[in-house]
Amino acid sequence: MDLPKDPMMLYSVVNTKLRDYYSSLEAMCEDMNLSQQELEETLRAAGFEYNKELNKFI
User: Fold this and answer.
1) Is 55 left (phi over 0), alpha (psi -120 to 50) or beta?
2) Is residue 28 part of a domain?
3) Contact (Cβ atoms closer than 8 angstroms) between residue 24 and residue 52
4) How many domains in the chain?
5) Is residue 1 part of a domain?
6) Which of 7, 29, 54, 57 would give a disulfide with 46, using CB separation of 3.0 to 4.6 Å?
7) Against a cut of 0.70, is the pTM above it?
8) CA distances from 32 to 18, 21, 40, 47 (A)
9) Cα(20)–Cα(41) distance, integer angstroms
């Protein structure tokens, strides 16, 4: 599955996947062949930071 380019849609899709399917961002990125650094940078630019304890971007 290709992730959306729009930052708000990306935020929503990533958090849904983290909630429903993955125990961590690392596991999701590894499973989906994504660059964790690029994903975090993209969402950080939109004002979101990954919270490891909550396993979601806030």
Assistant:
1) left
2) yes
3) yes
4) 1
5) no
6) 7
7) yes
8) 12, 12, 15, 23
9) 23
